């Protein structure tokens, strides 16, 4: 169900919580237009997101992408449709999306079938750290984070006061997390940067989970270290048993947590990165 939240001066932020999997996209409503932030994973969700934008009765101005994962860029083709609307991302985010899309096709097609768009549309306008672009006098400033949760993450800051920010998956709101890209050390450094650079009163919007009264950065740090410790504690002489052990520890740590499949997809890649898989020794 879409939710509406009051935003900073002159904009309203509407959250679109996808139904195929718990991932959020957002519509930033300005006086005369709408800017989408991320585009969900599936055809159906992306079409509903676009419908929601159309229901606001204002033209779509742009799609901004936070980071290089398919649950955030995959639906862009459906959101944009036939309109001449730019899809904007950090240089590095755009490059990784192009580089990895074919690999993602191989992983996501078997899971989601025709709901994973046959044609994906990639960012066609890129920006650098600190650059801003305005729509209806509302500025959107890019904070380029580099590797983190994905191979390339960024944050979009809205307005000159930067009191609204879209932080992608820099932190999940108490759901299982995807660590398979292996950049958890820079992810932790990104969290430190965000803590230091975001206005303390800023309203942050994330890619997964319901809005929370406080920033989820402390929780995210503990999740990351708990996961890495669980991998290190497992006995990798039997990889299947080791994976079961990690999954058991993490589901005990976050009982009933959604997106468990993302965590499960991360176990072997992280073990490999740590040199723990027998065939990697
Ligand atoms: Zn995500």
Descriptive tags:
20% strand, alpha/beta, 8 helices, 37% helix, seven-stranded mixed sheet, binds zinc ion, 281 residues
Structural write-up:
- The protein is of the alpha/beta class and 281 residues long.
- 37% of the residues lie in helices and 20% in strands.
- It is built from 8 helices and 12 strands.
- Strands 1-2-3-4-5-6-7 form a 7-stranded mixed beta sheet. A 5-stranded mixed beta sheet has the order 8-9-10-11-12, with no helix packed on it.
- The longest helix is centred in the middle third of the chain and has 22 residues, at 91-112.
- The relative contact order is 0.12.
- Residues 1-7 have low confidence and may be disordered.
- Bound molecules: zinc ion (ZN).
Task: Describe the structure concisely.
The chain is an alpha/beta fold and 281 residues long.
Identify every distinct bound molecule in the structure, by name, code or SMILES: zinc ion
Biggest pleated-sheet summary = 7 strands, mixed
Give the N-to-C terminal Cα separation. Answer: 48 Å
Helicity range of the residues?
25-40%
H-E string: EEEEHEHHEHEEEEEHEHHH
Major sheet: order of its strands?
1-2-3-4-5-6-7
Class inferred from helices and paired strands: alpha/beta
Shape: globular
């Amino acid at each position: 169900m879409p939710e509406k939240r009051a935003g900073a001066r002159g904009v309203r932020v509407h959250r679109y919580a996808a139904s195929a999997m718990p991932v959020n996209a957002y519509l930033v409503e300005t006086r005369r237009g709408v800017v989408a932030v991320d585009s969900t994973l599936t055809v159906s969700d992306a079409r509903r997101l676009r419908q929601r934008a159309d229901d606001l009765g204002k033209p779509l101005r742009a799609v901004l992408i936070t980071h290089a994962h398919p649950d955030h860029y995959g639906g862009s083709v459906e959101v944009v449709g036939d309109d001449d609307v730019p899809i904007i991302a950090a240089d590095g985010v755009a490059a990784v999306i192009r580089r990895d899309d074919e690999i993602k096709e191989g992983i996501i097609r078997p899971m989601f079938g025709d709901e994973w768009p046959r044609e994906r549309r990639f960012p066609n306008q890129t920006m650098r750290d600190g650059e801003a672009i305005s729509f209806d006098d509302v500025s959107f400033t890019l904070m380029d984070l580099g590797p983190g949760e994905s191979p390339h993450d960024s944050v979009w800051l809205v307005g000159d006061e930067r009191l609204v920010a879209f932080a992608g998956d820099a932190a999940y709101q108490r759901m299982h997390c995807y660590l398979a890209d292996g950049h958890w050390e820079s992810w932790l450094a990104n969290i430190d940067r965000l803590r230091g650079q975001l206005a303390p009163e800023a309203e942050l919007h994330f890619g997964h989970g319901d809005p929370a009264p406080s920033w989820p950065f402390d929780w995210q740090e503990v999740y990351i270290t708990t996961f890495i410790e669980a991998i290190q504690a497992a006995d990798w002489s039997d990889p299947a048993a080791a994976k079961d052990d990690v999954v058991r520890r993490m589901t005990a740590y976050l009982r009933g947590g959604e997106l468990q499949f993302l965590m499960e997809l991360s176990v072997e890649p992280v073990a490999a990165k740590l040199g723990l898989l027998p065939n990697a020794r």
